[in-house]
Amino acid sequence: MINLLSDTVTKPTPGMLKAMWAAEVGDDVFREDPTVNALEAKCASLFGHEAALFCPSGTMANQIALKVHTRPLDEVICDEMSHIYQYEVGGYAFHSGIAVNLLKGENGILRAEMVEAAIKPRYDWLPRSSLVVIENTCNKGGGSIYPLKQIQEIRQVCQKNSLALHLDGARIFNALVETGDSPASIGAEVDSLSICLSKGLGAPVGSVLIGSQAFIAEARRVRKAMGGGMRQAGYLAAAGIYALDYQVERLRDDHAHARQLAVALNELSWVVNIRPVQTNILIFDLVSPRTPVQFLDYLKQNGVIASAFGPQTIRFVTHLDVTKEMVKQGIEVLKGY
């Protein structure tokens, strides 16, 4: 089966499993798991920050960041395609009692002038703008990338207006292998960021929230309140360390595979509006009367799994368990529809 459903479906490689079995562990709630401590120190150093926190999921890492950066009756400014708005169950309201100020960027990418124009004046009847969240790469935008210059310009707006800036960097390494920017150059422009280990990097579980010592100290308390305090989590952290050491550069293969699929789709008369393919996510629309239900059923019958992403929209996601041969086979399946 060729699974293009998501890059979250990957299985640990033999090398990763070996690292997990060999992990030295302790009780992370007491900060006594040496492998978790090593992962957190590694991530903080990589992005040029003081501290980090291992979390069970990217959603939890983002929700902790929202909680720590804001107080009730504040608002977060973000793109309408943002993961924190689209796919985190309204957690911004549930956990933090804040509003969202949605902007319409280009494939999920905001510009500094848009952010500045969205900041609300301080009136009693308006929520207080206190946080900006950007997503790099943007999932719903088709794996779109923020240029570093654009992040720097947004950072300047935030500093000028005393707003915090959080980066949802679930797929930040997909962006970095394309742009050539260093993790530290991105980290320098944000107050906090989350990175996901269980997407393209191929670890089975976990995300890391990164920020200052004071920010992470408060984040630990919020993680505990959300039920995210884990015990012998070093077995999972070891997979994350392995992923960062050995499975970053190979993300380029996933991007190449997504582009191959896009080229094939571009030749099909029943496919329109293929979003720009910058990384490993490929989003396109079907021409009516074809529907996602019919199309996905055909794919499944022919050994391919994918997902609907809208009334006429399909998403393919490439990852380390999708080989070059699988891509060729998938293209033949597409041609036969």
Task: Summarize the topology.
Elements (H helix, E strand, L loop, with lengths): L1 E2 L10 H8 L12 H13 L4 E5 L2 H12 L4 E6 L3 H4 L4 H6 L2 E5 L8 H7 L9 E8 L12 H13 L3 E6 L2 H8 L3 H5 L4 E5 L10 E5 L1 H13 L8 H13 L4 H16 L4 E2 L8 E6 L5 H10 L2 E2 L1 E2 L4 E5 L6 H12 L2
The CATH superfamily of the largest domain is known as Type I PLP-dependent aspartate aminotransferase-like (Major domain)
What form results from the Cα inertia axes? globular
Mean of pLDDT: 98
Count of individual domains: 2
End-to-end distance, in Å?
Answer: 17 Å
Largest sheet geometry: 7 strands, mixed
Secondary-structure arrangement, i.e. CATH architecture of the largest domain: 3-Layer(aba) Sandwich
At the fold tier of CATH, the topology name of the largest domain is: Aspartate Aminotransferase, domain 2
The CATH class of the largest domain is identified as: Alpha Beta
Question: How many β strands by DSSP?
Answer: 13
Strand content: 15-25%
Helix content: 40-55%
Give me the Rg, rounded: 20 Å
Q: What is the helix tally?
A: 14
Poorly predicted segments: none
Describe this structure in words.
This protein is of the alpha/beta class and 337 residues long. The chain folds into two domains: 14-246, Type I PLP-dependent aspartate aminotransferase-like (Major domain) (Aspartate Aminotransferase, domain 2), CATH 3.40.640.10; 250-335, Aspartate Aminotransferase, domain 1 (Alpha-Beta Complex). The chain has 14 helices and 13 strands. It has helices at 14-21, 34-46, 58-69, 83-86, 91-96, 112-118, 148-160, 172-179, 183-187, 213-225, 234-246, 251-266, 292-301, 324-335; strands at residues 2-3, 51-55, 74-79, 99-103, 128-135, 164-169, 192-196, 207-211, 271-272, 281-286, 304-305, 307-308, 313-317. The strands form three sheets. The chain has a seven-stranded mixed beta sheet with strand order 2-8-7-6-5-3-4, sandwiched between helices. The chain has a four-stranded antiparallel beta sheet with strand order 9-10-13-12, covered by helices on one side. Strands 1-11 form a two-stranded parallel sheet. Strand 12 and strand 13 (313-317) form a beta hairpin.
